[in-house]
Design a protein that fits this description.
Elements (H helix, E strand, L loop, with lengths): L13 E3 L11 E6 L13 E2 L2 E3 L11 E6 L4 E6 L7 E6 L8 E7 L2 E7 L2 H11 L3 E5 L13 H4 L4 E2 L4 E4 L25 E5 H9 L16 E4 L10 E7 L10 E10 L6 E2 L4 E2 L6 H6 L13 E9 L6 E3 L3 E8 L8 H9 L3
Amino acid sequence: MKITQSLRSVPLTTAIVSSHGFPYDRRFMLIKLHDGNPSSPRSKSQVNGNLENMIITFYPELVLFLQRIKPSNSTFTVTYSPPDGRSKSLEIELEPKVAHLEEMDVRLHQSPAKAYKMPERVNAWFSECFGYDVMLVYLGQNQRPVLGNLSPNAAQNDGAASKSWLSTITASISSLTASKDVKEEGISFADVAAYLVVTEESLRDVDSRLQDGKQMDVTKFRPNIVLSGAREAYEEDYWGSITITPNKIEARSEVTEIVLTHNCGRCVSINVDYSTGKPGTGEANVLKKLMKDRRVDKGNKYSPIFGRYGFLKGPAAGQVIAVGDEVMVSKTNEERTRFGRSSVRNYLRAQLT
């Protein structure tokens, strides 16, 4: 789970599910402030006036910021850890009071929302770390609309043949004491969906492409659910939904279903060296290795696929899932789904340049 979009993830063992993701997951976002015309390699569609959403693809130094939740006082700590070892930290409220914060319009991957500009002490701290002006914005109770055919409603008519498969959740996922209120369908500052599911079997395939026994860091793929026990790598390309059943006997009736609507196209962010905050080179170019045979989505043909985007189905909001729960693939598709929104597809293509 990530509290802030593009910063490092927070490992936890249980999570409360909701229609827009786990509590606190990607509720904040960093924005770069440009003077005059933005000097950004990104397309104009990704820059809103002089404001630019910061993502690892274009700002790899984001990985030098670590996050840690402090449930006892409802805060989280961001620690900046540059290669020179001069670390410094800042404590921020998990749920800031927004009454006195400036409201502003934001847009991520063409999906708009209202957000709140965090206080100057927060923005000044981040600006000092980066060496240029940035601001942290908070989504609050707002949500972003799900675009195109990514939504579960658009996926309902996909043809599928039902199969079964058991698995164990091995991801580190959120364990938080947030509100269990059911919200309308929408997402946070996650890229395009509330959940991103990957498997350890597919991760091992990536490992096999690396030299000297190196292993791929799964957090570079930014999942919030990791499963183990698939029969083969990339079997999940065809999954239509998964059903999670708690291991605890007293909670066995609280089944959680996640509809998987699309495969996740990858970009150069998976190449970033987390120790230096710079793009990886040579053997670190994992994207190039996956390009050889993982460009399998006809709607996103320039991006290799790893993982599935998902959304909560039915009245499961407020239920708890945990590492060790049993997972069954409750629906499989006869063909791979096709990523279908042109504006989002063009964004993903731009990441590869």
